[in-house]
């Protein structure tokens, strides 16, 4: 009986694997045409300074609306786009879109904010990245000083000389580099010394638990101290409550992002938000 059970379990497992694989194949097939069918868009989520709660930036987050599947979460499609290499093309679209948007906001006389873009490892490792970024800045007239690229720790674990060179090339345009989901990835912190990183983004898993779990609170405290002792900026992501915001401010965290301050919204809604801010001279 045990043997039969085992076989059935295996069959069930095998079928589940096959279903998963074919679902990926299907998504990949749909993903291939998504750019040309204009199914992508970007949402912008506010980033605020914790000292005065002023809006200082926004993270651009990719959205995919498929005519039949509806809204597909980036957590589902980004990994498939990465595996297939499609992320290079999609990522270039994201960068161009963000720089165009930033330029348009600037032209409209709205207060200058930093726009943050997520880069996948494959995109970062692509030999063309620095020249692509340079071309897009040139083409759109967006100032690199207002662009921040979010990398994950795994990116910085790559070939050291190449990573350093890529970051140096980006720095020619005064682009800033942030480490996303900090504390969840690669465990060596040697790269913090080697590369010109500007900012750490505390992963939302620590922020979510910081008021109920002592260990998470300790991790948050340690990351803020680490950032400041290395002269880096630090932002907490996934801030959902006023209590978390106050706790983070107390710990001297520089910036925050999360539903408490604003959800990711389409460009129009973000424009409206920018229009409510005090005028710049
Ligand atoms: P991420 O870069 O760490 O982005 C933060 C995620 O947390 C976003 O999910 C955002 O909507 C969500 N979030 C923000 N505030 C809160 C909060 O207070 N509570 C909770 N529970 N969630 C919050 P989203 O938009 O679904 O994106 C998921 C991931 O997909 C991103 O994580 C990023 O890794 C990836 N991604 C999104 N856009 C792009 C893109 O343009 N390029 C690449 N390569 N990856 C992207
Ligand atoms: Mg991010
Ligand atoms: Mg993150
Ligand atoms: Mg993430």
From TrEMBL:
Signal peptide: none annotated. Residues 24-278 form the EAL domain. It comes from the Bacteria. This is cyclic-guanylate-specific phosphodiesterase. It comes from Marinobacter segnicrescens. The chain holds residues 676 to 956 of 956 of the full protein.
